Structure prediction request, 162 residues.
Amino acid sequence: MKSIFVAISVVFLLLVGTPIHSQMVVQNLSASHPSPRPLIATEQEVKQFFENYIEQYRARNIEGFLWLFSLKAVQNQKDRLPGIREIYNNLFDQSQALRFRLEDQKVEIYENAVEVKARYEIEQTKSSGQIKAWKGQGRWILIKEGGVLKISTVDYRNEKTP
Prediction:
């Protein structure tokens, strides 16, 4: 009789005092893996950003184009926003038309930034009718500033053309 009482007591303690295995698994998962932080942007937002980037570039709209850059933007690891303004202002002023195309975009979206790598082709038609072309690899780092995607860093690597 004593052994039956001990067995019943042990079973009772196991059922009441110890969490069931499936409960332990759920508790462990919820405690060890907090919900992931949201990503900075969606692929659709990045796509729309670059559509606007290309549109402003082609339209030679200096203010609309520079609005896409962070106040702390850096281009080609040296030019800050005043230098970026000067570069594009000169390019836009000397151009009758600009064509800008991106290919093979690779987009990586993180919690605090977006990295985009792509091949680019640029064709400038000057007022004189002369055509100049550049192509190469580009890398853009986008951040959110005031809730809007902005370019933090952009690097262009021009390929030599024959």
